[in-house]
């Protein structure tokens, strides 16, 4: 532990300049924030012309009829317009609030949380009731939307208050040596949420019912048994209550996993195709992808906490953002941390971190696809020989039903997409199939 604190102290010494150097922090933050926004706008402008194409890629031509492809292009175009306009509006508003010292004023008036309560809901309202409604995906009523919003606020109070109290107590109790203790607390909280979210929070918004007996349930249970996957519960979730988009996932502790399948996926795909989707998901479990992503996130979190002390003891930073000198001299921990996280970490690292995390995630997706294709060999099960073909059909069905974009600019995809494009995944599945056939020869 002493070695850790020695290294952390070295970091603070290297960052000592932030407390004394006359740096225009507000201008720097504004400049970088606008640079990120303009870069994202540039990516949208690269992607936008692809929505004018009149035919799908040749590999997908037989799966998209003209009308469906046109709807897909229109949906993608409308989402791009919304992202472009809302992104610039958000940046303009945030930039203005920051320039005129609104956040510092709001802390003195009523606290930033109150000042920003509900901020951003107008974009969600438009996205849900205009954009998604126009293209036939929204199933949510205004009453349900308001109820979800109220539940979200209530959860923020119920969970946020004790979390914040514990967060601040650790700062006070541990003093300058808060980093490892706060890391331990945050990891514990994250692992607790693995249990709390699906068992307590999600049922407040969606109904999870045991998957009905039948071919699909039998297929999944048999697959889980063959892979020694610790399946405890198999659920169907009423995703159609809010949207016609589809999905499937698993959660739980290492010794007790739960699989959740959206009712929309069950309605849109055949049982053997849904099984293939779950085979892909179990590939993530087999290769410990969630654990690896958690480990990467902890490295990022540790970096944030290791850098924070230098900014906590830097009055010039708070005064640069219009906080009174009396507050800046001995800043409340929560004020300093929110400013540090929102103004220095989020805008400065999001662009770089997202590209790196997306690259890792796409690698994991390919690995999970390969796992599904290799099940015949792994389990010596002849009936799984066509798992790759089934997965390909399922992916195509999901993309067609969701009107997903099939023409994607490579740079836009690298920045925004955690999954390979449909054509990339189908190409990968075909490569795995050819490789498997060569092995048999």
Outline the structure in words.
The chain is built from 19 helices and 4 strands. It is mainly α and 441 residues long. Strands 1-2-4-3 form a 4-stranded mixed beta sheet, sandwiched between helices.
- Largest sheet data: 4 strands, mixed
Share of β-strand residues = 5-15%
Q: How many β-strand runs? A: 4
| Uncertain residue segments | 111-118
Could you tell me the radius of gyration in angstroms? Answer: 25 Å
**Terminal Cα span:** 57 Å
What is the structural class?
A: mainly alpha
Question: What is the molecular shape?
Answer: globular
Provide a count of the helices: 19
Indicate the percent of residues in helices.
Answer: over 70%
Taken in chain order, the helices and strands follow as HHHHHHHHEHEEEHHHHHHHHHH
The strand line-up of the biggest sheet is 1-2-4-3
- How confident is the prediction overall: mean pLDDT? 86
Detail the topology: elements first, then pairings.
Elements: H1 2-14, H2 25-47, H3 66-99, H4 102-109, H5 112-115, H6 121-134, H7 142-174, H8 178-201, E1 208-210, H9 215-227, E2 231-237, E3 248-253, E4 256-262, H10 263-268, H11 271-286, H12 289-312, H13 315-320, H14 325-329, H15 333-373, H16 375-379, H17 387-401, H18 410-416, H19 422-440
Parallel strand pairs: 2-4
Antiparallel strand pairs: 1-2, 3-4
């Amino acid at each position: 532990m002493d070695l850790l604190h020695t290294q952390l102290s070295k970091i603070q010494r290297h960052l000592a300049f932030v407390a004394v150097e006359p740096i225009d922090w507000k201008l720097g933050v504004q400049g970088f924030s606008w640079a990120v926004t303009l870069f994202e706008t540039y990516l949208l402008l690269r992607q936008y012309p692809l929505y004018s194409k009149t035919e799908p890629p040749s590999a997908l031509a037989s799966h998209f009829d003209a009308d469906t492809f046109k709807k897909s292009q229109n949906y993608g175009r409308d989402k791009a317009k919304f992202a472009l306009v809302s992104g610039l509006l958000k940046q303009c508003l945030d930039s203005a609030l920051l320039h005129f010292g609104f956040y510092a004023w709001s802390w003195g008036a009523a606290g930033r949380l109150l000042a920003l309560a509900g901020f951003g809901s107008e974009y969600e309202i438009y996205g849900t009731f205009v954009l998604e409604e126009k293209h036939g995906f929204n199933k949510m009523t205004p009453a349900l939307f308001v109820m979800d919003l109220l539940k979200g606020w209530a959860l923020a109070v119920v969970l946020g208050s004790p979390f914040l109290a514990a967060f601040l107590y650790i700062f006070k109790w541990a003093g300058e040596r808060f980093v490892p203790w706060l890391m331990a607390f945050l990891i514990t909280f994250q692992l607790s949420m693995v249990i709390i979210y699906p068992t307590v929070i999600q049922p407040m918004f969606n109904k999870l019912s045991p998957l009905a007996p039948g071919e699909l349930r039998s297929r999944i249970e048999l697959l889980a048994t063959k892979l020694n996957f610790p399946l405890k519960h198999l659920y169907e979730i009423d995703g159609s209550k809010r949207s016609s988009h589809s999905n499937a996932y698993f959660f739980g502790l290492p010794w007790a996993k739960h699989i959740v399948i959206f009712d929309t996926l069950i309605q849109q795909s055949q049982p053997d195709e849904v099984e293939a989707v779950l085979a892909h998901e179990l590939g993530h479990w087999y290769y410990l992808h969630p654990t690896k992503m958690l480990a990467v996130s902890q490295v990022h979190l540790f970096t944030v906490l290791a850098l924070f002390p230098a900014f906590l003891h830097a009055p010039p930073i708070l005064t640069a953002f219009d906080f009174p000198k009396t507050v800046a001299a001995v800043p409340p921990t929560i004020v300093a941390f929110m400013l540090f996280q929102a103004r220095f970490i989020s805008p400065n690292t999001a662009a770089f971190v997202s590209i790196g995390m997306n690259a890792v995630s796409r690698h994991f997706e390919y690995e999970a696809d390969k796992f599904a294709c290799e099940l015949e060999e792994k389990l010596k099960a002849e009936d799984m020989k066509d798992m790759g073909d089934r997965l390909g059909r399922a992916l195509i069905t999901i993309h067609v039903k969701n009107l997903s974009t099939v023409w994607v600019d490579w740079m836009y995809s690298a920045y925004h997409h955690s999954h390979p494009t449909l054509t990339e995944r189908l190409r990968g599945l075909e490569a795995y199939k050819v490789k498997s056939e060569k092995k048999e020869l």
